[in-house]
C-alpha cells in the first residue's frame, strides 16, 4: 500500500541570511562562512516559526554543527502552473481556510536527515558518483493527493507522479545507498512521489479528502494547459544541506 505520510520537512532549511556575527575584541579575524552558517542555524532554531519556511517542521532535535539535508528534484514553476496552483488553493480554502500555497516545488528523493558538518563534502562526492549515470527524463504529476508529515502536524495537498515512477525509484535506490554509508534513514518503502502544492497546520485529511479531493482533481483535469505543464522534464538533482545547495546535472 502507498504510504501517505511522506513529507519529512525540516525547519533549518533556510538560506543564509545577511548579518553574520563578528568576534569581540580589538583584533577582528574573519570568521569562516561555514562557522557563521552553523550559528545562523542556531539562531533560526530559536525562532522556529513554521510560517517562515513553508510549513516545514523539524522532525529531529537541533545540535550545533548538524545540518538538515534533503535530496530532491527541483521544479521550476511556470506562470501557468502558478495559475493552476491559485485555483487549487482558493478552492481548498472553502474547506480549510488556513491552506497556504507552497513557494518552492520539488519531488523528494530522500527524507530530511541530519549531516555532521565534516560529512558534507564526502557525502556530496558519494552522491555525485552514484547519480552520475542518470539521464534526463520526463514525469507526469497530475493526480491530486493529500499527505501528512510523519508526526501529522502538517497536511499537504500534492500532485502525485503518475508516470516516471520507475526512474524515480532507481534514483532513490542510489540515494539510499549513500544514506546507508552514513547510517542515515533511507527513503520510505513504496513511496508516493509528488510535488507538494499547499499546506496547512494539523492533520486535516478528513476535511481535504473525499469531496474536496475530487473537486480539486476536476480542476486539474479541466485546466487548459495541465497536460503540458504537468509533464515535467527533470534536468538536475539537487541536495540542500543547511544553507548550501549542491547540484548534480542529469546527462
Describe this structure in words.
- With 251 residues, the protein is α+β, with helices and mostly antiparallel strands.
- The chain has one domain (33-249): Cyclic phosphodiesterase (Cyclic Phosphodiesterase, Chain: A), CATH 3.90.1140.10.
- It has helices spanning 33-46, 79-92, 120-131, 165-181, 205-208, 211-222, 226-229, and strands at 66-75, 100-101, 105-108, 113-116, 137-148, 154-163, 194-201, 231-234, 236-241, 244-249.
- The longest helix is centred in the last third of the chain and has 17 residues, at 165-181.
- It is globular and about 45 Å long.
- It starts with 32 loop residues before the first helix and ends with a strand.
The tally of structural domains comes to: 1
How large, in whole angstroms, is the Cα Rg? 19 Å
User: CATH first level: which class?
Assistant: Alpha Beta
Helix content: 25-40%
- The CATH superfamily appears as Cyclic phosphodiesterase
> Major beta sheet, specifics?
5 strands, antiparallel
Total strands:
10
Mean pLDDT across all amino acids = 84
- The name of the CATH architecture is Alpha-Beta Complex
